[in-house]
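Researcher: We're teaching a course module on how sequence relates to structure. For the next exercise, students receive a sequence and then see the predicted structure as tokens, so they can try to spot secondary structure elements on their own. Here is the exercise chain.
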Amino acid sequence: MTLRARYLLYMLGVSLVHLFAFLSFMLISGKMDRLLFAIPVNLLVLVGVNLLGAVVIFAPIQKFLSGNIPIEKATKRIHQLSWMSSAWAGFLVFCLSFTAFFGFNVLCPTCNLADMAPLYISMIIIFCTFVSMFIFFMIDDFAAVLKAEIFEEFGELIAPTGASLRRKFVAAFIAIGIAPGLLMFLEIFVFSDIRKLQGITSEQAFTFDLLIITVIAGASFYFIQKNLSRPVESLLNSMREVGRGNLDTRAAILTDDEIGKLANNFNQMIEQVKDRDFIKETFGRYVPESVASAILENKGEFKAQHRLATILYTDIQSFTTICESLSPDGVVNLLNEYFSLLVDVINKRGGVVNQFQGDAMLVTFNVPVANANHAADAVQTAIDIQHALADHIFCHGEKMVTRIGVNTGNVVAGSVGANERLNYTVHGDAVNVAARLEGLNKEFGSLVLISEETRDHAESGLGSDVHYEAKGELLIRGKSEAVKVYEVTQTFNE
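Model: And here is the predicted structure for the students to work with:
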């Protein structure tokens, strides 16, 4: 069933309500002879004319559903749908009831209804208001379904207009509480003379009103609770999806009240979270992810850190020779494959890639991410890199060898540069020593060299299969004191 067909079916509710009321009145009063007149009129006005008006009211929405106009041109009518439908239905019921009053005056020429007209019209207005409120809540619930289906089918979110729950609660209180009580009060103390003219007793009138009030108020309550619970349930379902990690979830905005505003704000919050994650992910491709997170959390500020850290420095052996046989694209692809392999190994041990320098790489442990076992993790990472490279054939069809230097010492980590352009890096003598140790591998024919400082901090955190071979005390350019250097290897039991 199409949405327009469902809307028109809902609008037939006013005909059913009026027909039910009329039939109940006829049965209670015993005036069944009027059915032959009442039913055709009801069908003509509350079915025929009612549906024609409903089609006109729904027309802009139908044009959007048919793809003839954009959602922006239909949004206003979607917001107006409940009260326009309610007003139209109330108007038709008033006209029908008012016509019935004059018809009764013609059928009863001896009755002086002119004096009773104000009371009769008041009775009609109260009844029409009662019916209109019922139609309002029924169509308002349909409007929520309409918005949900528009969202599901077209992905269009209809922003709330700013109506309040307070108004709905007031209307609900009037429809369920005040209106029925007022009607019963007026029936007993004011409308008794009119009922006598209609030929029914006070008891019959009381029974009729009680029946109508029960049915209409009960139906109104049903749609009111659906209208209030449906958007809450929808929002809770969206929250559950987000809780499962689905940030593509959006809450359908089903109402124009505070709950609709809450759903709208929820969607905006999710968009902000997605934007933040996107920025973090994108930013993290150019700086360490931990640095990106810290910068975002501190609104672009990154205070310098003074910390004991372990620095791991890598460089590809004979990389210039390798590049001679490759195209520029081939060199880029090879480096990307190489760095991807090493970064996976580094991440497993809590290392942070600080810089890519051509084919070289500067990796830090314990800065910016705290790591109590930074020296041991750095040494084990160097060993793991060697094993990973030994087992991998790269895109140029050969294996690659990298030399690594590892040193532990005090560093300063922070952002340097101009206000328009900053770069996160680490400074300190420990960084220079790690780079020099990497270069010393050429002299010793080794792959991994570490300083004594690193060995002292790492030894207790490594297994017995890790071996150190002293290479002596060597003077390293930039250092006033000799540095004890060790080659690190690892043996595996078969």
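Model: If you want an answer key for the exercise: The chain has two domains: 3-263, 300-490. The radius of gyration is 41 Å.
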